[in-house]
Design a protein that fits this description.
181 residues; six-stranded mixed β-sheet; three-stranded antiparallel β-sheet; 4 helices; binds guanosine-5'-monophosphate
C-alpha cells in the first residue's frame, strides 16, 4: 500500500498491531471468564477499528456500545475540558464496563470517562487503550490493558485521524510535524 507523503514513518505495522490486539483479547478473555454482563464501550471515532478487531478476538460473551466526546483544543482556556456528545444506548449499572480508547495523551479524556462511568455504579470498571504517550501525561489515569507506549508524535491510522483524514490506513504512522503544527 502507498504511504501518504504526510506520514513520516510507520511506527506500528499491521502484523505488529494484530499480534498485540490478540494478546490483549486473550488477557481480557481470561480476566472476565467468570463474569456475566461485559460491555465494551468504544470511544468514537478513534477507537472504532481497534474495538472491532478486539471484540472479534474475545472468547467471552459481551455487548458493544459507543460513546462520543469532544475535547477542547490544546492551548485554549478550556484545554483539558471534555464534553459528552453521544452517550451509550444501554445502561451500564451493574454491568462490567471496559472502556476502549484509541490513545491516552494528557489523560484528561480517560479520566473524564472513568469518572463518568464510575458514577453510574457498574459492577466493575476497567480501561483498554491501544496507545499511550507517557511523556505527555498531565493527570494520572489507570490503564488496565495497554497496547503500546509511543513517543510524543502525532499518530494516524488504524482509527486515528488528523482533521478526519488518514483514519483507515491499516498501520499506525507518525505524521510529519509540519502537517499538524
Ligand atoms: P487526552 O485527553 O489523553 O489528552 O487525549 C485523548 C484524545 O486525544 C484521544 O482520544 C485522541 O482523540 C486525541 N489524540 C491524542 N494524541 C493523538 C495522536 O497522536 N493522534 C490522534 N489521531 N489523536 C490523538
Amino acid at each position: 500500500m502507498e504511504i501518504p507523503n504526510s506520514v513520516e514513518k510507520i511506527l506500528l505495522d499491521e502484523e505488529t498491531i494484530a499480534a498485540r490486539v490478540c494478546e490483549l483479547a486473550n488477557d481480557i478473555s481470561a480476566d472476565y471468564a467468570d463474569d456475566d454482563g461485559l460491555i465494551l464501550v468504544g470511544v468514537l471515532k478513534g477507537a472504532f477499528i481497534f474495538m472491532a478487531d478486539l471484540a472479534r478476538r474475545l472468547n467471552v460473551s459481551h455487548h458493544v456500545d459507543f460513546i462520543a466526546l469532544s475535547s477542547y483544543n490544546r492551548g485554549t482556556a478550556n484545554a483539558g475540558a471534555v464534553r459528552l456528545i453521544m452517550d451509550t444506548r444501554t445502561s451500564v449499572t451493574g454491568q462490567h464496563v471496559l472502556v476502549v480508547e484509541d490513545i491516552v495523551d494528557t489523560g484528561y479524556t480517560l479520566h473524564y470517562l472513568l469518572r463518568t462511568f464510575h458514577a453510574r455504579k457498574p459492577a466493575s470498571l476497567r480501561s483498554c487503550v491501544l496507545l499511550s504517550k507517557p511523556d505527555r501525561r498531565q493527570i494520572e489515569v489507570p490503564v488496565d490493558y495497554l497496547g503500546f507506549e509511543i513517543p510524543d508524535v502525532w499518530v494516524v491510522g488504524y482509527g486515528l485521524d488528523c482533521a478526519d483524514r488518514f483514519r483507515t490506513l491499516p498501520y499506525i504512522g507518525a505524521l510529519r510535524r509540519e502537517v499538524y503544527e
